[in-house]
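FAQ: What does a ligand-bound record look like?

Like this one, built around LBFN2T5F:
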Amino acid sequence: MATLSFVKMNGAGNDFVVVHARDQAFSPGEEQARAIADRSTGEGCDQLIAIEPSDTADGFMRVWNADGSRVETCGNALRCVGWLLMQASGKDSVVIDTVAGPTVARRDGDRIEVDMGPPRLAWDQVPIAEEMDTRNIELQIGPIDDPVLHTPGAVSMGNPHVVFFMDHTPNDGFVRGSGSLIEHHPLFPEGVNVGYAHVMARDHIRLRVWERGAGLTKACGTGACAALVASVRRGLCDRAATVTVDGGELTIRWDEATDHVFMTGPVAVERTGTLTL
Ligand SMILES: N[C@@H](CCC[C@H](N)C(=O)O)C(=O)O
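The answer part, i.e. the structure of the complex:
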């Protein structure tokens, strides 16, 4: 039996069990990852995170969703891992590698900013099963002549997102019911994270997200980036906005010069503990 220490953290309420796997290997199978993430019998989290050593960066971040599936990246976890690596090294910025590519994390007062890189906007980069304009994809839910949801924008931030635009903020039942359906829609061969954006002003979006492999979360960092990008592409928002999520506020900026998306927000440590595997 092996024991590994972990830190329970959250970024705007999106919570993680972060395992130190720099000196000791950590490669849980799907079932083990799901058991750790289970809120009634395990430690409980939206995503399980491992910080592994890297030859090219300050650390490598590996991500599992609560259902045990491995995923490319996680925006809020990048901010939490960035904070941990900065605390440990005393640096003010660090590079974190992921399956989706490297990210720079920096301190911004008591918040952490991450450079999420450029959004991927071609239909086959999201990916979507058929060629279509990712500003308004051909998808609708509900009766043909009066759909409840329709023509979302689609964006990859290293992981796939669709963003529906709404004139109100939907309730839990609506997000759970429609999100669980759309996550597995055949249009998305790798599944999809589902965002519901209520654009309140050109610099303010209220967002709720049903996450692929995790369900309704208090915040989704890549989802907030995708919502801003999709809103800008529809002419609804300026290139910088506050995105209010269930667990707090994220500041998202899509830089015109570099095409990179930057996300800034809070991180919090909840507790520490050990996992016995
Ligand atoms: N919470 C995350 C996203 C985690 C991965 C996502 N559920 C997926 O399957 O792509 C974030 O903050 O970005």
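Follow-up question: can I read anything off the structure? Yes, for example: The helical segments are 30-37, 75-89, 172-183, 221-233.
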